[in-house]
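hey
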């Protein structure tokens, strides 16, 4: 399952003309008898000069995937934050705590359901089209 998830991300990135470069900064899978653990960090340069940094920790247990930690940062070529989805536990005032979205600015924090990297990539690429 983890391998399929990674393949879907890689295929989406490699097939899209809006993506100009992909750097895999970290990608490891630890396989124990009880679970598989994926940790990855990608830096994706977009054709418009912006970039996306994706970081996730994903568990595969009993044929299901669970994202336990994530941070997906989308930034314009000017350096301005467009959006950052994450589940760092630093906004307990948010109804969807710890999941939240920084929308356009670091201090503009709003509710957001949990997301995975593949979903975020699709959202970004759809918005750029």
């Amino acid at each position: 399952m983890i391998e399929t998830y990674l393949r879907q991300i890689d295929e989406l990135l490699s097939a899209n003309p809006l993506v100009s470069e992909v750097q895999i900064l970290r990608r490891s899978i630890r396989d124990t008898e009880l679970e598989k653990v994926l940790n990855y960090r990608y830096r994706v340069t977009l054709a418009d000069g912006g970039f996306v940094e994706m970081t996730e920790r994903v568990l595969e247990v009993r044929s299901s995937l669970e994202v336990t930690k994530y941070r997906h940062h989308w930034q314009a070529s000017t350096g301005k934050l467009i959006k950052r989805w994450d589940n760092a536990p630093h906004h307990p005032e948010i109804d969807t705590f710890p999941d939240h979205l920084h929308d356009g600015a670091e201090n503009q924090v709003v509710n957001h359901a949990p997301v995975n990297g593949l979903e975020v990539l699709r959202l970004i690429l759809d918005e750029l089209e």
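Helices lie at 2-15, 117-128. The first helix runs from residue 2 to 15.
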